[in-house]
């Protein structure tokens, strides 16, 4: 119930519309320029690993956007780098980490999140981009503006529309007072509605709403099931017993922290009090290594997101991606533990 009340209206609904707009309205070339497997690696991985700084999203909210760029033809490497980095390098969460848990851990989280996202993308691309093109998801064709006579539209209109939808997401998840938040979101929604009505064809509107609804039907039921299971696990989790494992920055502690983070659902910003208070980093009960591992794997993945990722990219790619998140988060935690010792 907490998940439904706190995240569906403010996070998931805007995210589904953003994903629908990416899949239906953006020209495929615009997505491939930054996320295509043939794009320059320095460009696509720079964008993918840092774009999450402006998105206050969690491991579930990032999924519709990931599905949108994947259906638009993005390469598996840049797409999975974006999938990990989106929640992991959330600017608000990183700032809160530095203020509450210490500047060193905050800086380590930034460096490790960017590094892990790039490594995940490069490894995924190296493994799966060798396959034949028919193994990839068929890209979704965007309707052409010329499909209806008389429409002349500048090329910057679709990106502006997507930008307005992203602004709705940012405003809805901000810390503003309820009245100010409602006013800003209402203005942005009205502006988005006007732009959609005035500058897009009926075919494009139908494609936009069709893609949004298709992604919602495909993803949301799985999120509900996974979130319920995660809630049961979290309720019965023996926290006091597990805290005794996290006293050192060895492989076992960092691996358990990464595995727990990958399974449990952590809403945006909640990972900071979980690490600091629940598992005792602020009191010295938790070592720096497992703390960083939990901060990397926890926000970027959860059991609900695993189920959806499995559905979107298939069992082989999902299995490798999940394994990479857990293993690389473990390694980064061990490295930081040795440096901070």
TrEMBL record:
Give the signal peptide range. Answer: none
Starting at the broadest rank, the lineage of the source organism is:
Archaea, Methanobacteriati, Methanobacteriota, Stenosarchaea group, Methanomicrobia
Q: What is its main location?
A: membrane
List, alphabetically, the InterPro entries matched: DUF318
Q: Subcellular location, in the record's words?
A: Cell membrane
What's this protein's name?
Permease
So what family is this one in? Belongs to the UPF0718 family.
**Keyword flag Transmembrane helix:** yes
User: GO CC terms on record?
Assistant: plasma membrane
Topology in the lipid bilayer = Multi-pass membrane protein
Keywords attached to this Swiss-Prot or TrEMBL record, sorted alphabetically, are: Cell membrane, Membrane, Transmembrane, Transmembrane helix
Q: Which Pfam families does the record cross-reference, listed alphabetically?
A: ArsP_1
Q: Where are the transmembrane segments?
A: 6-26, 42-67, 79-98, 110-128, 156-176, 183-200, 220-239, 251-270, 290-313, 320-339
Against PANTHER family, the record matches this protein to: UPF0718 PROTEIN YRAQ (PTHR43299:SF1)
